Amino acid sequence: MPQFIPRSHRSWRASTALRIPCPHMGCSRWFKSVPGLKHHRSSAHNYSFDPTASANNPHDYPVPTKPAPGIVRDYHNELTGKLAPWHRRYLCSHYFLGDICDTNGLEIDPNTPLPPISEKDPNDWAPYCNQAQFETAEFLFKNAEMSAGNIDRLCDLWGSSLRTEEGGYAPPFADHKHLYNTIDSTPLGDVPWDSFKLKYSGDRPMNSIPPWMDQTYEFWFRPARSLIANILANTEFNGEFDYVPYRDFSEDDEKRRYQNFMSGDWAWMQADKIAEDGSTHSGTFVPIILGSDKTTVSVATGQNDYWPVYISIGNIHNNIRRAHRDGVELLAFLAIPKVAKKYVDDPVFRRFKKQLFHAAMSRILASLKPGMTIPQVMKCPDRHFRRIIFGLGPYIADYPEQVLLSGIVQNWCGRCIAFPTDLDGGGAPRTSELTRALVEELPLGVLWDEWGIDGNVIPFTEDFPRADIRQLLAPDILHQLVKGTFKDHLVEWVGKYLELEYGKAGAKERLADIDRRIAAAPPFPGLRRFPDGRGFSQWTGDDSKALMKVYLPAIEGHVPDGVIRTFRAFLEVCYIVRHNVITDDTLVELKDALNRFHQYRTVFKDIGVRPEGFSLPRQHSLVHYEALIRLFGAPNGLCTSITESKHITAVKKPWRRSNKHNALGQILQTNQRISQLAAARADFEARGMLPTAVTVFVGGRENGAIQCEDGGNSSLDEDGNAGIVDERPGLAHSDVKLARSRNRARNALALAIELGIPSLPKLIAYFISDQLQPDRVTPIVPCVVAPFTGRLKVFHSATATFVAPSDPSGIGSMRREYIRAMPSWHQGPARYDCIFVSTDDTREGMLSMDVAQVHCFFSLVHTNGRMFQCALVRWFDRIADKPGELTGMWMVAPSFLEDGSPHHAVIHIDSIVRSAHLLPIFGSEYVSPYVNCHNSLEVFRGFYVNRFADHHAFELAS
Prior knowledge:
The protein is α+β, with helices and mostly antiparallel strands and 958 residues long.
């Protein structure tokens, strides 16, 4: 750590000389340098839609997605349409949409004006009487999830409050039946449920026939074609929808970029196959994405398992699919055959379960089959009709379901023929052609033992053209990386190592210290706290994701360096594959990290934890990620976390609001009503009858927006509005809203006393001088600057809103976080968060930023009437000019002045990038029981800048 920092560096590190304005219309951002301006323009104004286009678009064309600046895009030359002339404004290269047509499928002039949004009257709220009735229905049924009895009670009270001697007014609904009937009569989004039954029809024993052979299994589903039609017609997806396969390349070095599904090679190759039929030319290819995953809704009241199947399309962008927003629909509920324990391992029953699944899936998807060879005329998000060609795309599933889907034997790989005892040895890809040839030539036993093929199972994809399930198994970040390799393997292996090395008692002691270290992690927006360390009674995916963020420093000193390097390499793999955009360079980084992981994990074999090696299907799956990225684009759009989070709204919440008797029927009805309400809202918004909220997007580094908040509002303390921002970013004037906080100092002198920082008035004076003289090149002379003693307003927090497409985010890839600076957090100890501060726009990554801890947010008005929004911070110094070799994380330490006092400064909130998370450098010392998350920033003297706090931080601090 540097022992001396020049005085000039201390003085000028806090300056924010805003000299260069952003020329973009409607943006009021200023920047210190030309590189800073370029960075801002390429990020803050790089949207997938152009909000000013309608003014220059005489035909009111939809605004299509367009590549980012510096990107050249190639489109498939068969499944494309005519170039709309106004598109040339956006791209130097050609930009195509699929040919538009009329409702009969006949090609029409691309200059044809858009059809009207609706033939209905602008004030037609049918089947609702008015806006109030619709919003009441939406609030009671969808938002509040109110029970029928409570709805009746509310309507009675509502009616009583409106009743007068003259008659008065009636409430929007008389009772729950009136509300339900109104929702049920909504035509939009009404895709009714249907069902069919299947039963065993194979050979039976002469006597003692198992009950499951006589049982009938019922499957509930909605027509897949109708659900796809609803997704395609959703105007909310306009601008977030790709009509043809494409390939993106960097303009400067022509390196490939993979992002949304249609940017991958699989969609391009499918278009090649489709284009062999001339009748499909100028059509729009719609890949069908499927996913299924069993879920348990209650164990206490009995094992209530459901097996939902979800459907989406590859044309919508990854952020839409992750945010759901009707881009992922509930397709079906599969039957789960249950038998007495003595039949569980019966080979005939196990074979029947597999055949039952594939037979049901083939029937559920039957409505799509005609559209895989004959184009179907359907309305698209831009309101034009196009000729649609369907194709079965990736299937999202965890490993047990991948075994079921691909018809392989447990512990084999579904994508290649690597032998289960040497998976890392690799093998040729599995294909339907290879499988059929082997089944025709080899006996079932040989297929099972030597090829890992269950010859009795024919995958449902064999019933559909151009589909091979073995090549459609999607990457699964959640189960293969997070739950599988991290939680089930690496974390467990650490425990086994400690027990082998130190015995059970010693291992218990060290695990307890690791738990204390985890519990001592300072708060961070969106970070789950671990007051008891790893002590979960039942691990969830969220538990594993949260533990990954803080685990690496916690085990340092207790395990060999090789284990630390193994975890570092693996975490880098996890965060790289989660990138929203993956380039050829990113794939090189991924390959390097994966090679290092494979190299370093051998330490577990050397120390006796894994003497048998690492032939594990979930770890083996990592070797396929590079190929899968090239095929399907960024993996964050195809992960079981999408289906697992959908379980909450589609299965678990509807089950909880049911009466638990024959709950499936009630779950189906609840989902249908929610779909009808969502479709009605989308229609009312498209017709301008309901306002469409747009997030005010205030500029800032990495698309950040900092806004001060009143600490007196208790709702903010719960981060109720933090996290996912489910709206698209809009271009707006910077608007910092300040609200007076209560029981805080009202002037600089009082605040200095309250914080115990007597130099605060002079620090404010230095800050104002910097702001008023941004071009000054000489340092400030302290004696000529009078301390600021005027009035100010203090705030407990600021909100940072920024685009973080690699993290869980809303439909516009936006997130919001609170940065706290509070003397008491939840009526307990103080909380002073850390931040990244932009200090050098001429450099990149961590070298362009410094880390600081916020002690106070405040605003003041200068004598010239100019208002400043500020933060009082304490600086941290980088211990070295590069990340640590062992952990790969930057290290910082609290900064001190020459007299030994903490190095404080006042900065403008526009220089704040976002929150930073610091983790103590524990070394080999045991953590005192008195150290906790509230005081760890004060107790320790060295910290890691946690690049694994989230994916946005990983990109910033790498």
